[in-house]
Give the backbone structure.
Amino acid sequence: MNAFTIKLLEGVTCRVNGLNKFSLQLHSVWSEILLATVDIDHRQQFTESCYSNSSEYYVSAKHMKLFDWEMEVIDEYFPKAPARILIGGCGRGREVLNFLKMGYEVICFDPCTEFITDMQLHIKDKHILASLKCTYEDLIDDDSIVEQFAPFDAFLFGWGSFAHIMDNNQRDEILRVAKRICPNGPIVLSWPRVAGFEVGPKTKALRSILEFIGLDNHKSDDSYHRDSGFVKTLNNEIVSEMAKRTGYTAHFPKIENSYPFAVMT
Ligand SMILES: C[S@@+](CC[C@H](N)C(=O)[O-])C[C@H]1O[C@@H](n2cnc3c(N)ncnc32)[C@H](O)[C@@H]1O
């Protein structure tokens, strides 16, 4: 895919998102078109622009609280403060702020420039050891970005962000990196609950048309949402297999109203 096509799709997506407020159906059709058109190498870029243009993650008291399930996991699995925590996909700093308040040392990163800048503004009265603009994929290519701060006592993949790693091998790879830089601590990752693989007849027909005209990048286990971009469908089974391949034990504590998540030790 060339840069012009991507820019064009991003531009149309902005317009469609405006209209989406009035039509869920338009959103579903446009999601299918993007899933069929945007190849895996450009999905990250697209995800970044979705987050940058979304108002969903603005800093507000509501958005800066930890979820109950996160607090239970911290209580049960995390070393007590002061300990050194790496937080990926940190967004505008919801988890970062709360870990700092609890007395932890925090190094965090996110690919979205607006998020990192906003976080630095809002958390200016607390000291973050480092806040970097990068992806999990960047860490796989070069973990020296964070290695100077290693070893970490825990590695938190910020809320849902693990599912933004679209390439199956790279999810294994980042867990291997995690083992190197955080050899003894828990690794916590979470992913969105996706309705399942069932698609209705209209979506099936649209997919057939898109495939017929050569737009066949659709992967049945990927989904797209206007506020959070491309997401991989994950579940406990997939994550257990991943843990086995990378030398972890995956725990799936049952907590009421929790997001799907795993603790890897
Ligand atoms: C659902 S938001 C959560 C943000 C924040 N952790 C929170 O709970 O408010 C997911 C975050 O993952 C980031 N993200 C997307 N793709 C990523 C990638 N490949 N590597 C690291 N972070 C990514 C997004 O920029 C976004 O900030």
